Amino acid sequence: RVVLTSSLAAVECGNDDIVLNEDIWSKDSVFGEPDAESQWKTHFAYVKSKTLQEQAAWALSRDLGLDMRVIVPGNLCIGPILSSHLNGTMTRIRDIMQGENTLKGSADLGVVHVN
Question: Which of 5, 59, 98, 101 measures 20 to 30 Å from 70, CA to CA?
Fold first, then answer.
């Protein structure tokens, strides 16, 4: 069995008004082209990479006959910062701590600490 830790970015983005399930993927309109006016403008490449990597993993698991399961953790996975700059997730945490929630769907905010 293979267990893949995925991301809400692979399924949630652009699907604000529906119940998510195993057949839902983030919408192409979120990551098709970077749009300066889009709410996703700062992380369209992240959404695209997470969506395409999970789709590729499913295709490979089918081709190889693997029993794959996917875990999709909460909205924000945080841990020690290893780079010299704030990534998108840590920027969102900073914004929340400063009183401005820049995340869509803030009512369902879940944070997972991986340390």
Answer: 101
Please list, in sequence order, all residues whose beta carbon lies within 8 angstroms of the beta carbon of residue 61, skipping any fewer than 6 positions away: 2, 67, 68
Q: What is the pLDDT of residues 89-109, one digit of tens each?
A: 777 788 888 888 766 654 456
114 class by beta-carbon count within 10 Å (0-12 exposed, 13-18 middle, 19+ buried): exposed
Cβ distance 72 to 7 under 8 Å? yes
Q: Which residues contact 62 (CB under 8 A, 6 or more apart)?
A: none
d(CA 16, CA 18): 6
Q: Are 3 and 72 in contact (CB under 8 A)?
A: no
How many contiguous H segments (helices) and E segments (strands) does the chain have? 3, 4
Residue 18 burial class via C-beta count within 10 angstroms: exposed 0-12, middle 13-18, buried 19 and up: exposed
Give the 3-state secondary structure percentages of the chain, helix then strand then coil, rounded to 5.
Answer: 35, 10, 50
